[in-house]
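Re: the multi-chain job from yesterday

Posting the exact lines I submitted so nobody has to dig through the queue logs.
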Amino acid sequence: MHLYKRTQDHDNLDLEKNIKLCKAGNRKAQKALYDFYSPILFGICRRYLKNTADAEDVFIHGMFKIFDNIHKYKGDGSFEGWMKRIMVNESLMHIRKHKKLNLTVEWSQVNDSQDPVILDQLAEEDIKDIIMELPEGYRTVFNLYVIEGYKHREIGEMLGISINTSKSQLILAKKKMREFIKKKDLDEKASYNERYK
Amino acid sequence: MKRHLIMKDINKIFEETPDNKLWNSIENKLEQRKSAKKIKLYRIASLAAMFVALIAAISYFNLIINDHNPHLFASNEGFSSYVLEDLSNDQEGLFNMASFDEIRKAYNDQFGPKIPIQMAGNYVAQDGEISIDIYIKDYTYYLEFSYAEFPTFVLDHKEDQTLYFASKHYNLTLNLEQNGLKLIDSNFLPEYQNFTFNRLKSI
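And the result, structure tokens for all chains:
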């Protein structure tokens, strides 16, 4: 059963029909939905959780929650956005449950250099490496603020931390990324020099 | 060559197809959930059925326990046991008709009409114009006028001293008096209302 094929054009998807079938518990429709969205949703879990087994666990729980609660989706807003929110929340729950966050640095202790982190000049793999190399707390706040687009106030509520802690985590994350980029540039220069000596 | 990206494409960088076994795990969880939902449904249905049965049982026993109305139990106080009469045969071994007649007469006397037998006889109205004849036939009293074209009345019922006669279209109510009968109501002879019909004594 091919309800739709993965394409760039979402208008071509018979998403409405698929959601209706999923609400009725149709297994084939669920599989079709899974096949289409699982790379995006699993990517979210991978972005929050470094450990693959943890990411898989959260992904399974998240997908189950999506299918179990799909009747609650009333068509307001993007369906993909609704699913993504579930995955993000599941990931955060997992992180909080396993107390992986160590968010104690306060705003006052951090100096922001205001230098932008120029990620768009990096290769895909480098961006992935940089983000995954960040400590859990930095990465979580970076993901929520930069990628998900939450405000510091919302992040504070979600993670049970103060707004200043959220801000400081983000600054430290950026700082760490700058260091990473700098180190990478130095490594590349050294490698170049070595090669053309 | 390095490919340049913008921030919103980060999601794409992380896109990764999960292992196939993950779908199996999700499917198992969904199946378990489905079964759990079914069990829950059955449990609710059985609880509802039990509740209904309990209410029915309570209502039934409540009815039995609280219902001590003695009038609900019928009794036949007038019941008497049957008595079988012996019908003896005659000397020739045949059915004894004499014995049977005796028994029938005894029963007629006992269970025949309760209206006094002396009511039968001839009566004449006080104006001497018409007369009536009351006779008994097959345990029923009949009333006939002296005119052949007048209808014959049959005793319908009796209340104390009042006799209610009726024909197909008429009625006639008479009261038993010292010397005869008094017509107290009739749609057949309204002009004879309150007339006394004196009994003629046989010579």
